[in-house]
Structures are given as C-alpha cells and as structure tokens.
Amino acid sequence: MSVSFTYTVEQAKDCINHTEQQLRDLVSTILSHKYGPDWEYSSPVWNDETRKMLEGRIRDDQGHRPYQIVSQRLLDYSDIKDLRNIIEQHWDLFSAVFLSKERIMHRFDDLQALRNPEMHGRPDILPHQKHLCLGVCGEILAAIDHWSYGYEHAIKEYAISLKFPVYVENEDEFKALSKAKSLAQQWLDTICSKLNVNLRGLSSNEGTKIWQARFQHMHVTIAMKCDYKGFDGRKYFMAADIDIRTANVSALSQIVEAGEHPYWLLYWVLKDDLSPSAVAEQVFTNTGKRPVSSSAIRAGETTLLTQAEFRIGQEVEESIRVTLSRWKPDEYARISLIYDGTVGKGFYRSHEIFTIKLILSLLYGEIPYWKVSKLVEQACSLKD
Predict the structure, then answer these.
(1) Domain around 34
(2) What is the model's pTM?
(3) SS3 252
C-alpha cells in the first residue's frame, strides 16, 4: 500500500493541522469501539480537570463564533499533548497502530516542540526544523493509513427500508395510500407465514406501527409507516414504508428472500467511529472528487463534516449513493447505501455483497469501473 504525502515546507502548518485531525479521528474510532460513542463522558479517558479545560475551549470557540455551529466533541479541542497522553495511557489499544511506544512518544514530543512556533507564526523555527516537522507528521500519518487499511469496522446494527408505491390516479391520494398500506401488510403477512414469525406490538399511532419479531433466536424490529408522497419524474405516487432493524445480517437475508421485495436503503450502525471528514479527504486525494452533498460544523480553525454523500456507479442504470454521517458526539456513526433508480426496484443482496471496507475501496477509486457495475448489478438481483 502506498501513502500519498504531498506537503511542502511552505505547507507545514496545514500538515500539522491534518496530522492532528487524523490523530483525533483515530482516537475516536478506537475509544468509541472500546467504550461506546459517548466515551468522552462515560469512560475514564478524560479526568475531570482535562474535561473541564476542553469544555472551556468549546465555550470560548462558540463565543468567538456566535452565529456558527461549533463542534461539541471534546476531542476536537485537544492538542498534541492531550492526544499523546491518551495514547500512552491506553497503549494496549494503540500498539497495533504505532508498534513502538518509545518511538511514537518521541515523535509526539518532537512535534509538540515544533508545533507551537509554527502554528503561531513565530520566526524561531528554522527551515531544517520545518523539514523535521514534515517528517514526523509523515511518519504518524503513514502509521495511521497502514492501520486503517487493514481495520474492520465493528457493526452494531443493520437496517433496511422497503417502499410499497401505488401511483395516484384521478387525484385520489387516499385510495392510493390505502392500497399501498394493503401491499405492505400483505408482504408482512407473507414473511410471518414463511418464517413462522409472531409479531409483538411495541407501539402504534395514526401513521406508524412498530413490532418486535423473533425467529431462530434472532431479534428484529419492524416499523410500518403509511404517509409517503413521491414523484418519479413523471407521476405522483403514494407509498407505505417498512423499516427493519437487526443485529444479525442472516435475519435480513431470510426476510428479503421470504418477501421477494426490494429495499431502497441499507445502513450500518457502527460500534466505532467513522469520520466523514477523513473519508472525504481521502476520496479527494485519490480521485479528485468532492461529496455531492455535505454538512459541517466548526472546531476551532478546522471544518468537520457531520455528513458526506457520494455517488458511485453513476454511468449504469442502477446507481447508488453512499452517505457517511455522525451528527453528534454521543451518537453512533452510520454509513448508508441508497438505491437510485426506478420506483419499485432496488436492492436484494447489498447487505450480503457490500462491507464497510468494500464501500471505502469503491469511494477511494481502488476498484475498476467494470467491477463497480458488476457489484451494483449483483446487489440489485435476486439469488439464483
């Protein structure tokens, strides 16, 4: 695996910013896997003194930017010293990344000594020291990239969304919605019959019903909502939606196979973190492409993406979008696949074919076009 490093001595400040952000994302990924998404408050990683200091930095930043949304993640206001302390105190979690504790601690010390004069524009950093700064940052970034390449994200939950559309005729939306609801109920009855599933109602209101199902020792949550109005570019339609959530991918396979109806959305909820900013930066470095849509917040001088969406397979009839999101510090990261195509068509096997690592490889341009097209085709096909 080759690592791209294009910073020059004139870009030392940018390189330091990039390195610090990559370190924060690394720490967030590893510690959220260990302690959960709210680790900054629920784990012993921060002591009270450090936590209060970082909270103060957030308040100061918000005061300087009263009309902007700033990050509420404590980690985004940490510095090299804070990150060094976390990695040193939790070396058992980070040894697979940096390998030598003594070596990486020395690198952090070197970077800390060079960082302050460079970031504050003081003239007492010499040209050869800027080269040293780039070398230290390059070594840290290479270690993170090498680790990330082999890292498998841990899945907390899978979810799919199915749509049952009926076109509106003679402006009778109520009749179309009633028929869509009937189609969704027939599908639900079918999978319950084929899989011998008994539904236990959890909640119900005028527009949504939620059930819990258990079969073959697997737990599934099913929600039906009947209020969607859409337009396919030619005609309006009404639709009922069914959402299914489970921690077991086998349960999804059996339900989709029993129901023989495509789903338009698949998403994974991750036990660890996945930074939209880090992914977007790598996508741009590898392919020159930017997200087709995104949202962001500020953290000091850094802009952090909370959501980024990309399109893959746009030259084939059945293309898909990939969305990465983590909206709040205490929320789990999520990655989604969205089907873009004809209403009533969609995925049958994307939960079996795609993995997080495969999706990232697609985004990074590491998979040839013909294979992308083939994967999308397989994901939208029933099993033989």
Answers:
(1) 9-150
(2) 0.87
(3) helix
